[in-house]
Every structure is written in C-alpha cells, then in structure tokens.
Amino acid sequence: ETPILEVRDLVKHYPVRRGAFGRGAGVVRAVDGVSFRIPRGRTVGLVGESGSGKSTTARLANRLVEPTSGQVLFDGADLLATRGRELKALRSRMQMVFQDPYGSLNPRMTVFDIVGEPLEVHGVSRGRARTARVTELLETVGLSGRDLYRFPHQFSGGQAQRIGIARALATNPDVIFCDESVSALDVSVQAQILNLLKRLQRELGLSYLFIAHDLNVVRYMADELCVMYMGEIVERGDSDAVFADPRHPYTQLLLAAIPGHDPATAKAKDRAVARGEVPSPSAPPSGCRFHTRCPFAFERCTAEAPRLRTSPATGRAAACHLLDDTSEGGPS
Ligand code: SF4
Ligand code: MG
C-alpha cells in the first residue's frame, strides 16, 4: 500500500555568514538526507534533542519550507512538483498542531472564526452550514456549541489545544503534524490530549508525524520511531523494538536519560554518558557526526560517515560503523 506520506533524502541547508570579517559564508545543514514513510492510520515519532532538525523536517514535509533537495510524496503525488490550486488542495490534507495552544490561536478571533476559517478552502464559508460544521468539530474534540463565540483566553490550556485540534480537523486532513503538541500542558492534561489524538486516529483514520522531546510521550503514541541527530536520522524502526533494544549509541544515550527507564541494554545505560555539547550545526564533525560524544567512537568514526542501513529481516535501521557487519545486536 502506498504510504500516505513519504519523504526521500530530504535536505535543507541554510546559508549563514560566519563572521563580519570576510571569513566567508557557510551552511547550516538543518536537515541532511532524511527519509521515512508514514503508513496510513499510523504514527511515526520523531525524537532528538532540540536543534536536531525535527521541526524543520515537518515543515519541509508539508512544504511550509522549501527543501534544498529531496522528494515528498503525499498519497503518491509529488508534492514538490505541484503548483497552484492542486498544491493548495494537497496541503489542506496535511495540518499542524503546535506547541503553544494560546500562541497559535488568534486572541481576537472567536472559536467560530478560528475553527471555521479553514473551511473556506472547501467553500463552506458562511451561514448555517458553517455553524453546523464548526459545532460538529467542537463536539468531536470534546467541546460544545456553547463555546462558539468565546475567545481563546477564556479556555484552559488543554481546552485551547482542543480548539487547535478542531481547527486542524476542519479540512478533513489525512496527516497531522504534532510538533510538541502536549509539551506545554500539565501532565494530567497531556494524557487527555494524547488519548483524544488516539481516538481521532481510530475514528478518522488519521496518520500522525509526532514530534516530541519527551520520550515517554512518544513511546505512548508512536508505532514507528525515527531518531534524529544533527539533521540526520541515526536510527529508525518499530517503536517498541527501539525502546526495548536501542541499537545506535545516540539512541541508547537518549533512552538512558529517561528518568526511571531501565533499558534491556543495562551496560549501555552505564556507558552511554553524554560527553560534551552538541556541536555547531554549521560545523558538523567529520565522519560520524556523533563521534565527539560517542562512548564507542573509534578511528574510522572520525574519517567516514556511517550509512543508515536497514536490516531486511527486522526493518530496523541504524547508522553506525559498529553495526555494519551484522543485522542483529549492537554495541554493548
Ligand atoms: Fe559512535 Fe562510531 Fe557508531 Fe558514530 S559510527 S555512533 S561514533 S561508534
Ligand atoms: Mg522544534
């Protein structure tokens, strides 16, 4: 089956000036050769430290930002070759739910206008039909018609995020990009919103690209996991499998940092300690970009970039020289 969304070798380089005294321009490799697919009705989680390229990846995939190179296939259609009305129609099938529920809702607009605005794409712009549809959307997310003419600040953070979700649903999207969508909420409210997203997925057949720095949240939501480091995917695979048995040293480090997490690879937990800061994205390390922090780095790591290799047996992928000669096991 065609995945609802597939990105192939997506690249975004931003030009930067290195300094004022003519030391020349460089590039920030914000996203550097990212590939993944989201099957219909499934959730792909994107994890990694801030600045690893997660949000940029989402913005490239729905073309809020133009990629430097690569391919985006939405429901089999080449999104980057699409223009005009066709592009608008395709993009209306991809929506975003952002981190800050208040910041992403216009404080001067009523719920009716906020949720109803995207309906104009479908020509449902006025009258009873619009009122009926907005009311239906509000009920879908656990609000009601009584909320139609209230303003965002009259709602709690969790309710405001429900408004953001109702707005995202207005165009009947196939894919929703959730970029830290529950990070700003209290833990108890987080659970309610996550369960709402899960229910909507079941009922509407939605697919999610789910970005979060909180690994417990991602673990709860994602069927598949992509781990990013400095603009690249370093590990990818079935979410439960990756959590149970992380292969890449960076994934091991991330999981070891979860409070109370006890990975099967206990040795890795002891050894995968962060060494140093994340390098500057405008001057990534040679070879494996993780080598400056990797507890297992050896000579080859500074000279040669490891390729992301997929094991045909398990579908799992990791980019690490230590994993080159075997499809099973990892550094331990
Ligand atoms: Fe560590 Fe080398 Fe593997 Fe990179 S390639 S993760 S530096 S062992
Ligand atoms: Mg981000």
Automatic annotation (TrEMBL):
Q: Taxonomically, which superkingdom?
A: Bacteria
Spell out the InterPro entries in the cross-references. Answer: AAA+_ATPase, ABC_transp_ATP-bind, ABC_transporter-like_ATP-bd, ABC_transporter-like_CS, Oligopep_ABC_C, P-loop_NTPase
* UniProt record, GO biological process: peptide transport; transmembrane transport
Which GO molecular function annotations are given, in alphabetical order?
Answer: ATP binding; ATP hydrolysis activity
Kindly indicate whether the keyword Transport belongs to this entry. yes
The record's keywords, sorted A to Z, are:
ATP-binding, Nucleotide-binding, Transport
Transmembrane region(s): none
What Pfam families has UniProt attached to this entry? ABC_tran, oligo_HPY
Similarity-based family: Belongs to the ABC transporter superfamily.
Spell out the NCBIfam families in the cross-references: oligo_HPY (TIGR01727)
This chain's protein is named: Peptide ABC transporter substrate-binding protein
Q: Which organism is it from?
A: Prauserella muralis
